[in-house]
Amino acid sequence: MKKTLILAGFSALMMTSCVSKKKYDELQSEFEKVFAAQQTCNNQLTRCESDRSSIQAQLDASKANLNSLQSALDQCLNAQSTGNVNITKLIEQIDASNSYIKQLIASKSKSDSLNMVLTNNLTRSLSRDEMRDIDVQVQKGVVFISLSDNMLYRSGSYEISSEANEVLGKIAKIIKDYPTYDVMVEGNTDNVPISKTNIRNNWDLSALRASSVVQALQEQHGVDPKRMTAGGRGEYNSISSNDTPSGRAENRRTEIIILPNLEQFMELIGQAPRG
Length: 275
Description:
CATH architecture of the largest domain: 2-Layer Sandwich
Strand content: 5-15%
CATH class of the largest domain: Alpha Beta
Distance between the termini: 48 Å
Order of helices and strands: HHHHEEHHEHEHEH
Number of strands: 5
CATH superfamily of the largest domain: OmpA-like domain
Shape: elongated
Structural class: alpha+beta
């Protein structure tokens, strides 16, 4: 429904402005691409967070199962009764649970360690001046690189500046050092309406900015496009109040999100021992 309304508004804008039919078709095609990319981006991030929660639940359940098995064995040994309990099988179950928990912990620790190394390598490669416009954080096992629009683009534009291209080159090098990680690029704006002939609203601007970053990473810095997704979130993913200039500046950002490979965790979930 939202997509239909946006397209309807686009058609109305076409009829009431001097935008050519060719330009209209180009903008409509671009909108379709970034709209689909945004949906893919949001779905992938949701799956990532859901998978991580599932892994933690499996780990908690396995620990509880181990405690239960250990308690049953202790009761059996204290009572010196083996008639109704196969102690050998019980010990094997405890060993299997122990091994499974160790695998989960090792895999989770490896992912967390890789994220920290990635973050440290990136921050060391950036200058002090560059770090003023960049925020790097690890949240829920995912690396977030937030770039201010002042550093990336001119006001109201989606063209990458030469200074920003140098920074993107450093980020691209880190991304290529971790070839199994996926990359999502999300554009964000403040709530001030955009006034440009070829940009309808903040949705368009945020999506075009994300698309510009993805294309720069691909075409100028050699990042595999199959690893990347671009999407715009407009003004609807704010991290600060839009009531002040400083708050609006924080909301105008582009985020490069680096996602770890979760296949190893899903394989371990499938191998969970049954009590």
